[in-house]
Amino acid sequence: MHKNFIAGEWVEGVTAGLNINPSDTRDVIGEYSRADAAQTEQAIESAYQAQKTWAQWTAEQRSDALDRIGTEVLARRNELGELLAREEGKTLAEGIGEVVRAGRVFKFFSGEVLRLAGEKLPSIRPGVDVEVTREPEGVVGIITPWNFPIAIPAWKIAPALAFGNAVVFKPADLVPGSAWALSEIIARAGQLPAGTFNLVMGPGSKVGQTLAHSRKVRALTFTGSVSTGRSIGMTCMERGAKVQLEMGGKNPLVVLNDADLELAVSVAINGSFFSTGQRCTGSSRLIVEDGIHDQFVAAMAQRMAALRVDHALKAGTDIGPVASQDQLDQDRHYIELGCQEGGVLYAGGELLQRDTPGFYLAPALITQTHNAMRINREEVFGPVASVVRVRDYEEAVHLANDTDFGLSSGICTTSLKHATDFKRRSTAGMVMVNVPTAGVDYHAPFGGRKGSSYGPREQGSHAREFYTSVKTAYTLA
């Protein structure tokens, strides 16, 4: 039994659930505890009591703690990457890559501890000094999704701890294994004061809601669905807590007539289908200029036919299974809906049989769509891409921005003029030129606009905006 970690102790939950391998549903990865509201309150209280002690540790001590955590994560990249691939369905290479990213995040923030600077300003009044400093918020609640079960926890936990906060961490109920393994490393290798870091696994209706409502949780960071994010945001704002929300996207990739066709297809295949399309930054809308449309679609279908969908741990697998039966059902629903609305299933989209029972779906390409269709308005979150044909660049930019979301966008072009203009006019928080819409650096800010994101950016030096509070102090000299 994999237990919760509360107040420095491993504690059995009130119930437990099985972690199932989506590549082989006969394979049970483990049994994981699930907490209720009362246990979550215990974790919050332990964090509340421990935070002041943790914040008093010197910057060097906190830096060393995060560095030790990052070092162990990187040293165990193969083991942890296999666990991640086994429970979430990413290919082994993608799983190992995600673990490396998590380790690098802890290493980066071990340095950020020492780079947290303040300001000294001249006052308008004689004889008065003005100092601006940053302090920890206090207890930070962290709620993470299932699609990046170790990287997203890392890029939230590391800055929270780096800047002196205590943490109560709730991972996605679907994939507790990687979160538990990371938590075990943090609890042991970090040598943190008891209560500084807490792992509380369990359903959002109990654990997540308790975190959102608790007045001792001064900041809450969430990545997940739009509906859940908005509910959490309203709850936190009603009680005056800081909140950070990442809620998905409907990201466009524009392909212009002057694009390098081979490069554009590679960018689209990666952004639309790798990680089984289960990335909030994935390019699910392919907006293609008329002159290159037919060539692009034909080349996409040819490349898609060569992709190997199979067991995540099998050598040669390009794309693993969908993460769960519920997600598979959602993907198939949107494929059917796209066709009902007038789209054409040009390639893929069928269920696949493999040597092991799992949630295998051939990547789907739907053509002859327009931007008003639900397939182009709502996030599918699977290996499903739709194609919209446009007359020219101006129409492409208009349709790219015609969405309630604004996380990531991309363009494939050899025109410096169009690339520069698109970076300026795109209403997304992240813009990619001739690279996939999915895939960002751990030291650069991450986040979107409109319905995709709310609150300060994640990652890099910009993370301090959420995890710290600014204090201005005046002193009569």
TrEMBL record:
The keyword Hydrolase does not apply. Signal peptide: none annotated. One of its GO terms (molecular function) is aldehyde dehydrogenase (NAD+) activity. SUPFAM superfamilies: ALDH-like. It catalyses: 4-(hydroxymethyl)benzenesulfonate + NAD(+) = 4-formylbenzenesulfonate + NADH + H(+). Its EC number is 1.1.1.257, 1.2.1.3. CDD domains: ALDH_KGSADH-YcbD. The keyword Oxidoreductase applies. The active site is at 246. It comes from the Bacteria. Belongs to the aldehyde dehydrogenase family. Involved in the toluene-4-sulfonate degradation pathway. Does not discriminate between the sulfonate and the carboxyl substituents and can also be involved in the p-toluenecarboxylate degradation pathway. This is Toluenesulfonate aldehyde dehydrogenase TsaD. It comes from Malikia spinosa. The lineage of its organism: Bacteria, Pseudomonadati, Pseudomonadota, Betaproteobacteria, Burkholderiales.
